Amino acid sequence: MAFRPQSLTSARERSCSTSAPARADVLISAHRVGATGKAIGIDMTDEMLDLARRNAAAAGVDNVEFVKGYLEELPLADEVSTS
Fold it and tell me: Can you give the pTM of this predicted structure?
């Protein structure tokens, strides 16, 4: 049986993952927020960000953004939910 997460309630939902953005959790979040939403992955290393972008491209996911930053100083607007 395939995993099919439910869509989030808001049509323009945004979600942020601060734990290893190259993992599948960012891609799952991208699916959950839908085509009008955006999933954001944050990491402090260029290598992890490059890997995350490659993983997203390989999965055909285009509603993701990967940002260089630190947990202590998230480079995001206040309304973005973090997990």
Answer: 0.69
